[in-house]
Design brief:
Blueprint: H1 13-20, E1 25-33, E2 39-48, E3 53-57, H2 64-71, E4 79-83, E5 99-102, H3 114-124, H4 129-142, H5 158-170, E6 176-180, H6 188-205, E7 208-213, H7 216-222, E8 225-229, E9 236-241, H8 250-253, H9 256-273
Helix pairs in contact: 3-4, 3-5, 4-5, 7-9
């Protein structure tokens, strides 16, 4: 198995048609009540189409991470359903090799080399180190760390550790990439650089990405769609397309279009924070 490097044209008619077709995932009235009685999600309804880059934006505690965990099969719904209309998966939302998850922290094994950390998902599937070598090195090349395969996490910067975590998520060639505030703990310069790198990879390989963030600015820069969630209980209160063209480079950050979308997203977030006043 090798990593396909064919570039996906996300602005092509084929890509547009894919977005208009059946969703890759459909959350239908999903609610989640934890054992302590806390209602994290209430009637969460959202469609995700192939090739979209969606940011989940909302205040702390609104259930953004819970949505990702349920999609990944790391938690069950209390009511409602998660459907996979185009993939044949069942409605439980159990994780498959086509789903990869990047957490808030890199969660690397400190005793293992970068190569062995990235190899881990394939190793758990029974792929030998020799058989996995091409895919692991390919994933490291995608994130610019091919020269650090023999390094250990303690020898890497925070941004490099996150790159390793992303490479580990990509080595299985996922169709769906779930990212839970992966850049939140990084300095602004590193965060901007990784935003750019992530977009380039997304444009090149055509994944579907669901990205959790607290940052209006990050959500607008990355996404072609921002789903704004209300404070607990979490649910969709605004589904905002971002129609700015890709590729997006540094000049986009200072453009009028970017500033206008940031203003709209910020207003939607403020409205979401007060949404429970009307329950």
């Amino acid at each position: 198995m090798t990593i396909d490097t064919a570039k996906a044209d996300l602005s092509s008619p084929a890509a547009t048609s894919a977005v208009a077709s059946k969703p890759l995932i459909a959350l239908k009235g999903v609610s989640k009540v934890f054992s302590n009685g806390t209602t994290a999600l209430q009637n969460m309804t959202m469609d995700v189409h192939q090739g979209e880059f969606i940011s989940l934006l909302g205040p702390s505690g609104c259930g953004k991470s819970t949505v990702l965990r349920i999609i990944a099969g790391l938690g069950d719904v209390s009511s409602g359903a998660i459907e996979w209309p185009t993939s044949g998966h069942d409605a439980t939302g159990k994780a498959t090799p086509e789903i990869s998850f990047v957490f808030q922290e890199p969660t690397l094994m400190p005793w293992a080399t970068v190569f062995n950390n990235v190899w881990l998902p394939l190793r758990l599937k029974g792929v030998s180190k020799t058989a996995a070598r091409e895919d692991v090195l390919g994933a490291l090349e995608m994130v610019g760390l091919e020269k650090f395969a023999d390094a250990y996490p303690r020898e890497l910067s925070g941004g490099m550790k996150m790159r390793v975590s992303i490479a580990r998520a990509l080595v299985t060639r996922p169709k769906l990439l779930l990212m839970d505030e992966p850049f939140a703990a990084l300095d602004e310069i590193t965060r901007f650089k990784l935003n750019n790198d992530l977009l380039h990879l997304w444009e090149k390989f055509g994944w579907t990405v669901i990205f959790v963030t607290h940052s209006v600015f990050e959500s607008v820069y990355l996404s072609n769609r921002i789903v704004v969630m209300a404070a607990r209980p979490g649910r969709v209160v605004n589904d905002m397309p971002v129609d700015a063209a890709y590729p997006r480079e540094e000049e986009f950050r200072t453009s009028t279009v970017y500033n206008d979308y940031c203003r709209k997203a910020s207003n939607a977030l403020h409205q979401a924070m007060g949404a429970n006043d009307h329950l």
